[in-house]
Specification:
Distance between the termini: 27 Å
Number of helices: 2
Structural class: mainly alpha
Largest sheet: none
Order of helices and strands: HH
């Protein structure tokens, strides 16, 4: 597995689970029952968006280093 793939997967997991965990904590404090599907969807969507943005920024930084 390449370095960028590892970093992208780590970004996906950490950001997605953190966001979904905070959302579940917010729901819990409001008295809403925990929903596993809501948690999975929040974690997947937010994690995917963050991973795609990380990958794009990583590649932009790598290409700018090569131009200098």
């Amino acid at each position: 597995m390449t370095t960028i793939t590892k970093k992208t997967l780590i970004t996906f997991l950490i950001s997605g689970l953190t966001y979904a965990g905070l959302g579940a904590g917010s729901d819990y404090s409001d008295g809403v029952e925990f929903s596993l599907w809501k948690f999975i969807i929040k974690a997947s969507v937010f994690g995917l968006l963050m991973a795609l943005m990380f990958r794009y920024n990583f590649k932009q930084n790598e290409s700018s280093k090569g131009n200098k």
